[in-house]
Design brief:
By secondary structure, this protein is α/β, with parallel strands linked by helices. It is 39% helix and 15% strand. It has 13 helices and eleven strands. An eight-stranded parallel barrel has the order 1-2-3-4-5-6-7-8, surrounded by five helices. A three-stranded mixed beta sheet has the order 9-10-11. Helix 6 runs parallel beside helix 8 and helix 8 crosses helix 9. The longest helix is centred in the middle third of the chain and has 19 residues. The radius of gyration is 20 Å and the shape is globular. The two termini are 30 Å apart.
Length: 369
């Protein structure tokens, strides 16, 4: 058995699923654990297999906590949670928030996907909200459920109380398949402005996180500033996807320069998606993005990227880093993202990839820094 495997076994041997569940005393128990166990910095997106399987999510979150994950970026799909105006169904997000709370992992909620009733064109799958105030009202409902005084914590007094304090407003609106209105920036800034106002009224201490931008993200940030977005967010977010690690740093430097030029020089930046896929030779050329590598190559990039980016925290104002993703299936030749996970899910079994060992080692070195 090689040394890397022994390290992982030592770190994860004590992992057990936390207890918990709904119901119980509705009063707030002030003696229970409060907030995330560790200040959020290194995070992951859970990945499609976990989002589709609450039992698997519940099983993997303690593994994340032992591995050094401090924050989980979760899509909160508006169209699923409010399928008709005023009809709210929080069952899916309740399960995720409960599972994260058991391990005292922070949640970054990325609120996306317009329900048909809130679109100008119900047939347009990528249509943004017709009225930003509809989205703002939904954000307020989420905060009333999961914020510091949220009903979820009264309903689950047996859980550690880890309220959601960070709300990401959409995902990659610069892409037409996420936000069909063109030009995208003016309408997105209207949504961002309405969102921040609603968030601050509902929870003055909460953080409004801009949508993450991929590709030439510095140009998207300039578009935001030109559309009057300065001051309408607490945190900027980018997705610096590229083949070379050195180019990740260059992208972030360009992003920081764009924020400075727009008057947001001191605004923190979160890298809400960072990844290299291990789909090299497994994803068809039509679907490859140019940053595919092998499993060993993916592990090498994790081992190098996380310490490097962490070392740039002060110089570039990097507040958090999220790996995209924790778990994938490694089966779909039409999706590079199905090979991006640190862990691979097959049926009810989960295989740690070499990148997982690299992530754990990097996370343990970063702990407390």
């Amino acid at each position: 058995m090689n040394r890397a495997v022994l390290i992982i076994l030592a770190l994860l041997g004590a992992v057990v699923a936390g207890c918990g569940g709904g119901g119980g005393d509705k009063s707030d128990n002030t003696s229970r654990a409060q907030g995330p166990a560790v200040k959020p910095f290194l995070g992951v997106s859970p990945g499609a297999p976990l989002l589709a399987d609450p039992k698997l999510m519940d099983r993997e979150l303690p593994v994340m906590a032992k591995a050094g994950v401090t924050t989980l970026r979760v899509p909160f799909s508006w169209n699923e949670l409010e399928p008709s105006r005023g009809t709210l169904n929080f069952a899916r997000t309740d399960a995720i928030v409960a599972a994260a709370a058991k391990s005292r992992i922070d949640v970054l909620a990325t609120v996306v996907t317009t329900p048909s009733w809130a679109k100008a064109d119900p047939a347009d799958g990528a249509a943004p909200p017709r009225d930003p105030q509809d989205y703002a009202r939904f954000l307020r409902a989420l905060i009333l459920r999961y914020g510091p005084d949220g009903s979820f914590w009264r309903d689950h007094a047996d859980l550690p109380k880890v309220p959601i304090r960070s709300w990401q407003i959409w995902n990659e609106p610069s892409h037409v398949y996420y936000w069909s209105t063109r030009p995208w920036a003016p309408s997105y800034v209207r949504l961002l402005r309405a969102s921040k106002s609603a968030i601050k009224r509902a929870d003055p201490g909460a953080t409004t996180v801009m949508a993450g931008f991929p590709d030439r993200s510095w140009e998207s940030l300039r578009e935001i500033e030109r559309a009057g977005g300065s001051g309408s967010f607490d945190v900027a977010a980018v997705h610096p996807y590229t083949a070379k690690l050195t180019n990740v740093v260059k992208i972030i430097q360009l992003d920081r320069a764009a924020l400075k030029a727009g008057g947001d020089a001191k605004t923190p930046m979160w890298l809400t998606e960072v990844a290299w896929s291990s789909g090299q030779g497994k994803v068809g050329p039509r679907y490859a993005f140019g940053f595919e590598t092998t499993e060993q190559g993916q592990a090498a990039r994790v081992a190098e990227a996380l310490p490097l980016l962490a070392s740039k925290r002060k110089a570039l104002g990097i507040g958090r880093i999220y790996w995209e993703t924790w778990a994938s299936r490694g089966q779909n030749a039409t999706s590079t993202w199905d090979w991006a996970g640190l862990r691979e899910v097959r049926g009810d079994q989960v295989r740690p990839k070499p990148a997982f060992a690299a992530f754990v080692k990097a996370a343990q070195r970063l702990r407390g820094t």
